[in-house]
Amino acid sequence: MPPKTLIDIENLDTSTIPYGEKELDALLPQTGHMRQVHGVYSFDKEKRIAIGYRDVRDDEFWCEGHFPGFPVFPGVLMVEAAAQMCVFYFRLAIGLEQAPGRAMLFGGIDEVKFRGAVVPGDRIILVTKVTDLKIRRSRYDTQAFVNGKVVFSGKITGLLGPPAPQIYPDGK
Fold first, then answer.
1. How many angstroms separate the CA atoms of 69 and 158, rounded?
2. How far does Cα 163 stand from its chain's mean position?
3. Half-sphere exposure of 140 (CA within 13 A, CB side)
4. In this structure, is residue 131 part of a structural domain?
5. Quick check: 136 pLDDT over 80?
6. Domain span at residue 17?
7. Catalytic residues
């Protein structure tokens, strides 16, 4: 049985993207092939939720070998995409003010379920909902949707890392 969805995916407004590549560059430490979030549709601090997306292309580094002739987006990259949405939420909600210049690191993932294959041409909608938000440790429920169906769910824990001037040279 599929999980209860964190949002009403049918009524998601995808007409505007307030957080695109430039805004994500200032908030997420991952770049190049490791950037797994391509845009964010919404950030709602009161509802404790952020919704973004990742477009899956046929020219990505994993396509040739996972799997030859039938490329399937690796589950580990879906987990990473969800984790990056958690970092996005953390940085906007409290990180910029209370932990400037510090990265949030992966602390754990629980209750992971994959419920469908994701292939080139798909747009993954990434949903992050905060369950516990603190400076040192925060927890999130995450889900990913393709064509309105849940393809991934899991609970992610983030831990505050050390100051990272290499990542955030402006100290933010």
1. 36
2. 22
3. 31
4. yes
5. yes
6. 9-163
7. 66
> With bands split at pLDDT 50, 70 and 90, how would you rate the model's confidence at 170?
confident
**pLDDT for residue 70:** 96
Please, which contacts does 70-73 make with residues 24 or more away whose CB atoms are closer than 8 Å?
A: 71/119, 71/120, 72/117, 72/118, 72/119, 73/117, 73/118, 73/119, 73/120, 73/122, 73/124
Confidence of residue 169 (pLDDT cuts 50, 70, 90): confident
Give the chain's domain count: 1
Residue with the bigger pLDDT between 13 and 169: it is 13
Return the exposure string of 38-69: e unless at least 16 CB atoms fall within 10 Å of the residue's CB, then b.
bbbbbbeeeebbbbbbbebeeebeebeebeee
